[in-house]
Amino acid sequence: MEQTPLVYMKGKRKYLIITDHAGALPALPLIQKLVEHNCLFEWRTVSTFTDAAPYLIDWLSSQTIGSYLYLAGTRELIEKGREAAYEAGYSDDELQAYLVDDANTRIFCVVCEQTAFVPSGIQAKCPHCDTLLSITDHFSPRLQAYLAYTPISIETKAVTR
Ligand SMILES: [Zn+2]
User: Fold this and answer.
1) CA nearest neighbour of 134 among 113, 110, 114, 117
2) Has this prediction a pTM greater than 0.70?
3) Could you give the maximum distance between any two Cα atoms of the chain, in Å?
4) Are 146 and 108 a contacting pair, CB within 8 Å?
5) How far is the centre of ligand 1, averaged over its atoms, from the C-alpha of 44 (Å)?
6) Is the pLDDT of residue 50 over 90?
7) From ligand 1's centre to the CA of 128, what distance in Å?
8) Distance from the CA of 106 to the center of ligand 1, in angstroms?
9) Distance from the CA of 129 to the center of ligand 1, in angstroms?
10) Which domains does the chain have, with CATH numbers?
């Protein structure tokens, strides 16, 4: 598993960044560096690499020599992204990948209204308010997290519906 955060590589003509919901936040320190160094860069976020693959392959192929590619996100994004990059003519010297630990899920706790990383599963304790939560499969793009309810709040909802 690649745990190295993305490293800023000096002196590239242009930087390309592809992330999914898991990789967007870990990529932020790199983006900040690129801005600080006045670098030319483009950043694409996708829900899944597969959905966006035809467009991303075109995009990668249309970049001229000297571009440097960063991938950050889930296993699917890293594997498919790397494949697409090779197909578009990139070598391992021209790309960096950061696999976000998929044993953890980013949740939004509806009790204390904070986000947190918890071990993936159907239930987890909120590290902020210590409430036992049920993790739903409802992903909020706005919060960049899966919604997590208390078992009681789900029951209440069902009754009042
Ligand atoms: Zn909480």
Assistant:
1) 110
2) no
3) 60
4) yes
5) 31
6) no
7) 5
8) 12
9) 4
10) 14-99 (3.40.50.80), 104-154 (no CATH)
At residue 108, the 3 state secondary structure works out as: strand
Using CA atoms, how far residue 8 sits from 19, 84, 86, in Å, is 16, 22, 21
3-state secondary structure of 94: helix
Q: Nearest-CA neighbor of 99 among 68, 120, 73, 81?
A: 73
Per-residue pLDDT reduced to its tens digit, 63-115: 877 899 999 998 789 888 999 999 889 999 999 998 886 677 889 999 999 99
Residue 108: closest CA among 77, 80, 142: 142
Phi, psi for 144 (deg, rounded to 5): 55, 45
